[in-house]
């Protein structure tokens, strides 16, 4: 196939997403207000608690089996690499641009978490349905593509709610503590202010006693560790790592870790892998096939609703510009230049060393996971935490605006490489 044919194949699903997104933006305009704040909040709750879990559980139960897991084992590793590499690049961006403290976790979340859910479920089947598709028979391509996209969506949901949510929750709680006037008054009382608001009389001498060590004689613990290279330095380093890990685990919200999407992943895996349960629910002759039919019907509403919410959120991003353009450009550069280039190297290296088979559609899916725009669940997290909603809308607006061109070009290039 020529490059122009591949470009047309890659453009069709992107145009489909853009059209539905434009409808969402139109419905959210002030003149119509059909997707205002309250309506969007209710739809977001429906997607979070009903539609998205139904989509994940139904697709996993239908497409994932014990034999397919043995073939697709590298995909969870690949998605984990996208989070790790994206977080590392985001940290470099934060240092270079001196991003404000309250935006750092948001930038890391946008760079680390790609839209691994509804976009692959739209793009991959649409590419398979094209007559000029480079992936062979459309029915076989659609079946395999649905399995790849379902596993991608499932693993993305687990990583987002276990890593990105915890990171952003820590940042939101620290910011709330810094700005809470009650905490400020409490700290003032602890530092020598009476409950009536007047400072207490200081009875301690202002000058240090003669036997107290001078500042020159005081050596900080960090300086000792820097000047000593014995075993105690290594112990202190690992102790600091353990303290940081303990701090992070204290902030982990078990309820959000087992979000509805995560529970749906577990249920979908159990049904798909356990053959007796699968025979009861999946298949034309299954006794309980009505359960799968109802779940699949609810799951079909997830993609259009999520895409409409994307359009409504993007419209909000134009109204309150509170993010530096340098930060936005940096996020775009990471998601659409650095990550896709690194992804090509990772997938090619994995194929060379036998970690990934020769299936062109599978390799295309793995590469596509590096070129996707930020996950819309990042916006959902900001709404749940009530922190950084407007800033997140701005970043999502510009990244998704650029994604229409970037995703088409990268999809064309990926198909040209693997096919």
UniProtKB/TrEMBL annotation:
- TM ranges are 6-26, 72-94, 106-127, 147-165, 257-277, 297-315, 327-347, 367-385, 397-418
Membrane topology summary: Multi-pass membrane protein
Q: Which GO terms describe its cellular component?
A: endoplasmic reticulum membrane
Q: Which InterPro entries match?
A: Mem_transp_PIN-like (IPR004776), PILS1/3/4/5/7 (IPR045033)
What this protein is reported to do is described as: Involved in cellular auxin homeostasis by regulating auxin metabolism. Regulates intracellular auxin accumulation at the endoplasmic reticulum and thus auxin availability for nuclear auxin signaling.
Family label? Belongs to the auxin efflux carrier (TC 2.A.69.2) family.
Name of the protein in question: Protein PIN-LIKES 3-like
Native species: Rhodamnia argentea
Source species taxonomy: Eukaryota, Viridiplantae, Streptophyta, Embryophyta, Tracheophyta
Quick one: which gene encodes this? LOC115754393
